[in-house]
Design a protein that fits this description.
- It is a single chain.
- The protein is mostly beta strands.
- Helices cover 5% and strands 52% of the residues.
- The protein has one helix and eleven strands.
- Strands 2, 4, 5, 6, 9, 10 and 11 form a seven-stranded mixed sheet that branches. Strands 1-3-8-7 form a four-stranded antiparallel sheet, with no helix packed on it.
- Strand 7 and strand 8 form a beta hairpin.
- The longest helix has 6 residues.
- It starts with a strand and ends with a strand.
Amino acid sequence: QVQLVESGGGKVQAGGSLRLSCAASGRTFIIYAMGWFRQAPGNEREFVGGIRWTGGTTDYADSVKGRFTISRDAAKNTVYLQMNNLKPEDTAVYYCAAGSSLARLRGEPDYWGQGTQVTVSS
């Protein structure tokens, strides 16, 4: 099994920045991609972005391209989500996810974190 623990959520004004972290533990050798989803009240959970563990290839939702950046620290088994120029519509619970490939991560991750709240005020 793989355990994912997020940190770094909080409240910020529109135009501000936040960085989320997600540390993986357990059988991390089976992870080939990690990333982030989010779910706003009344909405379905949506893919935000992901990164391939080897090579660092990234994939982003159109709604966050140019504002959000995903990176990883392989030595720490940690993935980061740097969020800049935040908008009120970015308000959601953000979930870390891991999968056996970047494609699988986008569609149906194998593992989930517990989520961290991000609130952006106007």
